Amino acid sequence: MNKSLLIRFAIFFSALPSAMGQTTSISPYSWFGVGQFATGQLPQQMLTGFSSATQRTPFYINPMQPASLSALRYSTFESGGSYQGVVQSNQQEKVLNNTGGFQSFAFAVPLNKRIGIAATMQPFSSVGYTFVDSAYDPGFGSSKYIYSGRGGLNQATFGIGIAPWKWFSIGATAQYLFGSMDKKTALDFDNQQFRNVGSSERLFVSGWHSTVGAQLILPLGKKNQFVMGATQEFGGELQGYRSALLYTYANSSSSTQIILDTAEAEIDAAGDMTLAGARTVGARYSRRAAGSPMDVWSVQWEQRTFFGEEYRTFVTDANGGTGQTNEWINGRRWSMAATFIPALVLPKKNWTQYASSVEYKVGFLQENTGLLIRSTPIERWSLSLGAGFPLGGKSFIPGDIKFATLHFGVLFGSVGTQVGGLVREDFVQGVVGITLNDQWFQKFKFR
């Protein structure tokens, strides 16, 4: 096979296949950019429509809104994860896949009544797919394209929230991203007189980006509260190194690749990638329990704009250029959520069941992700149902300090479409997390 034909195949590898026969996968949409973006949120936010701009509580950590950290009254540890089953389908077939596990932990400490700090460790994005596309060419006969990828980026965040006045809070978070991604493509010919063609890319990237936020807290009477919130996520640049190979190979008896010849190689080429920013605004109305900072019930709305047009692919020093990509456009997400605690909603009723002290949550999300494939925007929706279970005999009843909460819920939703040979992913995701509260730096008094 001559070099020009090899380059022709390399260019073809940059296009999404027109048909998909899935073998194992997390999501074929993680093929693009740095993979599928994680929410950056803990179970408490995931189960309320992924809302975060206006959430403000003394009990839970809200990593996406640094201004909320000033509301913390207890040293808090949170951890969580999820497991999901996904039905991935196009117009020809469907496949059931599953994935999940531990995803995040966070720790926060209130320094005083108006300042709180927090640190978290979470995934930022994930790459995970394996899919096959069959093809036929009169000159080469039948063949198949095999695409696979693994990896992703993690983020460590450090945030601070300050409330200079009772009715206003500001905050900032610095996020350090780091990780690697491996992507491979193979072209297997049924006709053994043609050499198979493969390409591989390994990318290591790291860098900083930041988020600032603000919340306006307006009391409406003695019990009701109205909160308006906003955050601005700054994209920033990631620096890294890329190694890439373009080669021919033969398949062994065990179906492993035996490399025959290397046509092109790039080893540890330095470059950078530009991440897109985002802006979120929202409003929240709630009723507080008498003598307690816990909400009796709350309703909230939020809108997030993702500036996908700012995204730039990884560009090495050798390639030059702007690295601008047409795979991303500006996206938008809106969500709404509600929470309530039965024993506080109807305090005069003689509640005896444990279930009456549980905080129930429902949320809905509709999103244009900003990913554009064949002029088709990739959209997502989800419905969440969840609950916060007080542990250790504690409850949300006024005067009773909550030391631990188990968060549990289920999300139903869909990503993508079958239009134009694309893939729709219908998922059911179970979410679980735990919050541990404690009082540190407390001055004890003795009589």
Describe the structure.
The protein has 447 residues and is mainly beta. The chain has a single domain (3-438), classed as Porin (Beta Barrel). It contains three helices and 19 strands. The protein has helices at 3-12, 43-46, 342-345; strands at 21-25, 36-37, 75-89, 94-112, 115-137, 141-165, 168-189, 196-220, 224-234, 237-251, 257-274, 278-288, 295-306, 312-316, 331-340, 359-373, 376-390, 404-416, 424-438. The protein has a 14-stranded antiparallel β-barrel. A hairpin with a 2-residue loop joins β4 (94-112) and β5 (115-137). The longest helix has 10 residues, at 3-12. The protein is elongated and about 80 Å long. The termini are far apart. The model is unreliable at 1-25 and 318-322 (pLDDT under 50).
Care to give the gist of this entry?
The protein is mostly beta strands and 447 residues long.
> What kind of sheet is the major sheet?
14 strands, antiparallel, barrel
Q: How many strand elements?
A: 19
Our count of domains comes out at: 1
Main sheet strand line-up: 3-4-5-6-7-8-9-12-13-15-16-17-18-19
Tell me the span between the first and last alpha carbons. 91 Å
Write down the Rg: 25 Å
Q: What would CATH call the class?
A: Mainly Beta
Shape label: elongated
The CATH topology turns out to be Porin
Number of helices: 3
N-to-C series of helices and strands: HEEHEEEEEEEEEEEEEHEEEE
Helix content: under 10%
Broad structural category: mainly beta
How large is the share of residues in beta strands?
over 45%
Query: Which architecture name does CATH use?
Result: Beta Barrel
Unreliable residue runs: 1-25, 318-322
Arithmetic mean of pLDDT: 85
